[in-house]
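Bumping my old thread because nobody answered last time. Still need a sequence for this structure:
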């Protein structure tokens, strides 16, 4: 692929993600909030976020990680490319500075922060390497960077269930703007390589156990349909009969994870952390 075509593809993916999150902000909170919050304490621990630390939360979404860092006594700034997300985060956390901005072009001076964190933001970026380089730039020497992504779909079972249902009952190859592979950073080697190439050292990658809980087996499908962008786009591009078959299949398999009236889906995160020399 030519560099011009790559650039156009990246711009299309960025626009697709941005438009999606403008629409999905409120529904993300309902669908994924209880799940993605489970990684925040391990994320902040890995970045050594403590009282007095200057912390930047990139791709901050509704502001979960920023709020948790502030509760630890850190001095927090936060940034997201979705104005709808920023507005929501500000309304819930008026004491924190949230701003609109690009993870690949941070509006902060070199060495501004002791820690930079990103909770499940990497897979939404058209240029993840730029975000890693920018995190390095705005950190002071000795500062720490940490991010989370989803484990592979064989382990993050919710993704496995929905993608398997699309393969069996629909069309997984619908035309969507091409983005970086959604599970690229589920691979510890990929995390290690990208962080070290950017200039980070002491890379540590590990799993964080998480469980997605629902009161009914049909809610797994609804969460993906309402609270995501790429997977939502994949589902909306299916024919009506295929979508109904996918919905039924997802509900049926989700039902296998019911435990005393609660559906409990394993959804581990991969947590990568590193040091700026």
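Sorry it took so long. Here it is:
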């Amino acid at each position: 692929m030519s560099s011009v075509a790559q650039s156009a593809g990246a711009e299309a993916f960025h626009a697709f993600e941005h438009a999606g999150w403008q629409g999905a902000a409120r529904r993300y909170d309902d669908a994924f909030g209880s799940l993605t919050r489970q990684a925040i304490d391990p994320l902040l621990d890995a970045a050594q976020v403590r009282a007095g630390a200057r912390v930047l939360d990139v791709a901050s979404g509704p502001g979960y990680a920023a709020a948790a860092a502030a509760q630890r006594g850190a001095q927090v700034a936060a940034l997201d490319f979705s104005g709808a997300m920023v507005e929501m985060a500000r309304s819930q956390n008026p004491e924190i500075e949230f701003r609109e901005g690009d993870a690949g072009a941070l509006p902060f001076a070199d060495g501004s922060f002791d820690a930079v964190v990103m909770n499940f933001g990497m897979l939404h970026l058209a240029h993840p390497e730029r975000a890693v380089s920018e995190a390095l730039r705005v950190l002071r020497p000795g500062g720490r960077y940490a991010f989370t992504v989803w484990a592979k779909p064989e382990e993050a079972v919710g993704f496995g269930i929905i993608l398997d249902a699309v393969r069996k009952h629909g069309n997984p190859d619908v035309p969507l703007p091409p983005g970086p592979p959604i599970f690229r950073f589920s691979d510890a080697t990929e995390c290690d390589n990208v962080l070290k190439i950017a200039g980070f050292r002491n890379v540590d990658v590990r799993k964080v156990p998480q469980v997605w809980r629902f009161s009914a087996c049909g809610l797994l499908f609804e969460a993906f349909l309402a609270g995501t962008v790429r997977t939502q786009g994949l589902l909306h591009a299916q024919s009506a009969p295929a979508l109904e078959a996918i919905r039924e299949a997802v509900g049926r398999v989700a039902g296998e994870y019911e435990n005393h009236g609660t559906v409990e889906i394993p959804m581990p995160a991969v947590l990568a952390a590193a040091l700026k020399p």
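The chain has ten helices and ten strands. Let me know if any region looks off to you.
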